Amino acid sequence: MYQNELTLNNGVKIPQLGLGTWFIDDDKAADAVKAAVKLGYRHIDTAQAYGNERGIGEGIRTCGVPREELFVVSKVAAEHKTYESAAKSIDETLSKMGLDYLDMMIIHSPQPWVEVNRSEDRYVEGNRAAWRALEDAYKAGKLKVIGISNFQIGDIESLLQTAEIKPMVNQILLHISNTPLELMEYCQKNGIAVEAYSPIAHGEILNQPEIKAMAEKYGVTVPQLCIRYTLQLGAISLPKTANPEHMKTNAEVDFEISAQDMEVLKNFKKIESYGASSGFPVYSGKM
User: Fold this and answer.
1) pLDDT score for 274
2) How far apart are CA 248 and CA 125, in angstroms?
């Protein structure tokens, strides 16, 4: 089990490998959490939009590992662009999950999902309002870490103009064939850790023969190569699965990709389609 931790800009340590839970049904979420924790996972990522916070919370409370040893994350829904709605949603998440605090909460997207890739409006004031709600919850001890997701450089710069507390993370779409180096370098230069969601490209990277060949060269699976790639970039990696066997193999990534191969992967051609998932905003254009 890969157990490396990173230290965020407020001194809090975060496990570099976590479990993503998008598409895990609420009634199956508790079992997924318990299986992951049994294997050694200590970082669990959910969101208000996933509809499984209740189940994730149940799994956290009943997994047999002390709460303080776990790093639990959720996200303020992209539609909350007022202080009041964001603040209310944070309290609702804590109540739904049955937890006294979250280790991290982040703004899910700078734009409501219905406008992602379809609108020039970056919701500057709305994001500042939602951020104030996160700052206040952080000061109140409800949240140990606060951050953002899917924010581009301009979105971050707008937020920093009024933010009292700098975001600690930016969770972005990051995988082989989609490596936004300029955004990553900006975040890292500003002390904002990068988190990679969909490190296996929602499964579509499995169809690339060149990636299969490189994985075979290292004696690993394609998902293992993909996850290791994001870790070597210095990112926090969040592969998502409800399958305990996949959880196990996803965490067996204690190998090293050569510097030469890392360059090949950084510049790997962009996959043309995310298949059946292409309709989701995060896969349908620039985020």
Assistant:
1) 72
2) 42
Statement: residue 174 has pLDDT above 50: yes
Residue-wise burial string across 90-110, b where 16 or more C-beta atoms lie within 10 A, e elsewhere:
beebbebbebeebbbbbbbbb
pLDDT (0 to 100) of residue 287: 46
Which residues, including other chains, have CB under 8 Å from residue 89's CB and lie 6 or more apart? 48, 76, 77, 80
pTM of the predicted structure, to 2 decimals: 0.96
Q: In this structure, what are the phi and psi dihedrals at residue 93, rounded to the nearest 5 degrees?
A: -65, -45
| 19-20 and 43-45 beta bridge pairing | parallel
How far apart, in whole angstroms, are the C-alpha atoms of residue 106 and residue 169?
Answer: 8
Sign, CA dihedral 248-250-256-261, equals positive
| Mean pLDDT on 135-152 | 99
Spatial separation of the C-alpha atoms in residues 280 and 11, rounded to whole Å:
34
The Cβ of residue 214 has, within 10 Å, a number of other Cβ atoms equal to 20
| 83 annotated active-site | no
CA-nearest of 53, 40, 56, 46 to 5 is: 40
Report the alpha-carbon distance of residue 228 to residue 247 in Å, rounded.
Answer: 14
CA pair distance 130, 54, nearest whole angstrom: 22
Q: Is 150 helix (H, G, I), strand (E, B) or coil?
A: coil
Active-site option among 2, 41, 50, 83 = 50
**Sheet of 19-20: strands edge to edge?**
19-20, 43-45, 71-76, 104-107, 146-149, 169-173, 193-197, 236-238
